[in-house]
Amino acid sequence: MRAVCQRVSEARVQIDGSVVAEIGPGLVVLLGVGRGDATADARRLAAKIARLRVFEDDDGRFDRSLLDTRGAALVVSQFTLLAATHKGNRPSFTAAAPPDEAEPLYEAFGAALADEGIPVERGVFGARMAVELVNDGPVTIVLD
Predict the structure, then answer these.
(1) Beta bridge partner(s), residue 102
(2) Contact 48, 2 (CB under 8 A)
(3) Which listed residue (78, 85, 93, 109) is catalytic?
(4) Is 0.85 surpassed by the pTM of this model?
(5) Residue 61 pLDDT
(6) Is 79 noted as a catalytic residue in this protein?
(7) What is the residue-wise DSSP string for 15-66?
(8) Long-range pairs for 13-17 at CB < 8 Å and ≥24 separation?
(9) Is 14 a catalytic residue?
């Protein structure tokens, strides 16, 4: 499982011009589910992201988490995070879990993040989405 977390002041997901999910300050989490990933991996990653200290304290240091700031998470499924690009020019996605395995783990991740006390909005699994965000910092962290 791989997550790209971007600290944002606001973000939204649109499908066919309609907003389907939206948050204010918090994290956009682009989530890639790999073959062999399990529910335990989703829970572990959700706990890590809820406590990831990427928000500034009063001294300007990264010392606050989503839990501390009461920020929200916008979770978007993105199998392309698992692309292998070491051969040729066309990415290979064989490391990504097939949709019937990935979707339940994507849902489990969102539920685990909500169980941690984080307000969670989600994109639509498998849909073609337009993700708009204002990266605050910019701050972008990759977690495996």
Answers:
(1) none
(2) no
(3) 78
(4) yes
(5) 96
(6) yes
(7) ETTEEEEEESSEEEEEEEPBTT--HHHHHHHHHHHHH---EE-TTSSEEE-H
(8) 13/74, 13/76, 13/121, 13/123, 13/124, 13/129, 13/130, 13/131, 13/132, 14/129, 14/130, 14/132, 15/124, 15/127, 15/128, 15/129, 15/130
(9) no
Within 61-128, residue ranges assigned H as helices are: 66-69, 99-115
Buried b (16+ CB within 10 A) or exposed e, 111-121: ebbbebebebb
pLDDT band at 110 (very low <50, low <70, confident <90, very high): very high
* Residue 143 near residue 16, CB atoms below 8 Å: no
The C-alpha atoms of residue 41 and residue 128 are separated, in whole angstroms, by 26
What pLDDT sits at residue 5?
98
Partners of 76 in beta bridges: 30
Cis peptide before 138 (omega within 30 of 0): yes
Active-site position among 55, 62, 69, 80: 80
| Catalytic-role residue among 55, 79, 109, 125 | 79
Nearest residue to 93 via CA among 10, 2, 28: 2
Rounded CA-CA distance 118/5 in Å is 14
